[in-house]
């Protein structure tokens, strides 16, 4: 059945990712790359939705801190993809390199349904402007400006009572179901940002 997943059910998945990430850090550091990592979107705020065939997903942002060897966008994406593939947990698929994210999935071997997935994007702050590595329709990798979400936490804090929280959970859940059914390619943190704006507009007229 569809529904929100308890915080305790998500903790083991976070721990699994953190263990893998420790090895990835060592790999990319040898190539001059250092980074910080943020869990974003629904998993960070106890809003994880489980789909009956697409499971539980956690979204992560890797923010580059240094690139001592001057690797270009394609080289950076490839370096991370190969490293995550090398250290992926048992049962997880190799990374799928989509337009912006690296996605790893674990499926139920018997029913071929997705149990868990990690979506990983690579960002860099360029003179105060957040940019994300994206693949163009021509197959080239470029830094694209990411919409600033610097004020998101302030807006999220405006969800200040149970009625607002219930409305946010209802709207976000509906958006996640559409995402899982392939009706939108937006990431979870984008959907949450939209939902927060909608709830604020509804209650702060």
How would you describe what is shown here?
By secondary structure, the protein is of the alpha+beta class. 38% of the residues lie in helices and 28% in strands. The protein has 5 helices and 9 strands, in the order E-H-E-E-E-H-E-E-E-E-E-H-H-H. Strands 2, 4, 5, 6, 7, 8 and 9 form a 7-stranded mixed β-sheet that branches. Strands 1-3 form a two-stranded antiparallel sheet. Helix 1 packs across helix 2 (73-87) and helix 4 (162-180) packs antiparallel against helix 5 (188-203). The longest helix has 23 residues, at 7-29. The radius of gyration is 18 Å and the shape is globular. The N and C termini lie far apart (35 Å). The mean pLDDT is 89.
Largest sheet: 7 strands, mixed
Low-confidence stretches: none
Per DSSP E runs of 2 or more residues, the count of β-strands stands at: 9
In DSSP terms, counting alpha (H) and pi (I) runs of 4 or more, how many helices? Answer: 5
- Give the N-to-C terminal Cα separation: 35 Å
Radius of gyration, CA atoms, in whole angstroms: 18 Å
Measured as a percent range, the helix fraction is: 25-40%
The percentage of residues in β strands lies in 25-35%
Shape: globular
List the helices and strands and how they pair.
Blueprint: E1 3-4, H1 7-29, E2 33-40, E3 49-50, E4 56-67, H2 73-87, E5 96-97, E6 101-107, E7 114-126, E8 129-135, E9 141-145, H3 152-156, H4 162-180, H5 188-203
Helix pairs in contact: 1-2, 4-5
Task: Summarize this structure briefly.
With 205 residues, the chain is α+β, with helices and mostly antiparallel strands.
């Amino acid at each position: 059945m569809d529904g929100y997943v308890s915080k305790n059910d998500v903790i083991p998945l976070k721990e699994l990712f953190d263990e893998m990430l420790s090895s990835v850090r060592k790999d990319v550091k040898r190539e001059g790359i250092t980074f910080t990592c943020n869990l974003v979107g629904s998993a960070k705020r106890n809003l994880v939705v489980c789909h009956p065939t697409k499971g539980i997903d956690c979204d992560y942002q890797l923010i580059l801190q240094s690139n001592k060897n001057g690797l270009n966008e394609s080289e950076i994406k490839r370096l991370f993809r190969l490293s995550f593939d090398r250290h992926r947990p048992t049962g997880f698929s190799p990374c799928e390199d989509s337009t912006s994210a690296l996605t790893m999935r674990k499926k139920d071997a018997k029913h071929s349904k997705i149990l868990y997935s990690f979506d990983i994007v690579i960002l860099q702050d360029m003179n105060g402007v957040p940019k994300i590595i994206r693949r163009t329709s021509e197959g080239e990798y470029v830094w694209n400006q990411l919409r600033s979400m610097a004020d998101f936490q302030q807006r999220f804090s405006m969800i200040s009572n149970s009625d607002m929280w219930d409305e946010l959970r209802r709207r976000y859940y509906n958006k996640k179901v559409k995402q899982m059914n392939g009706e939108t390619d937006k990431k979870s943190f984008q959907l949450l940002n939209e939902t927060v704006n909608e709830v604020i507009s509804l209650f702060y007229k």
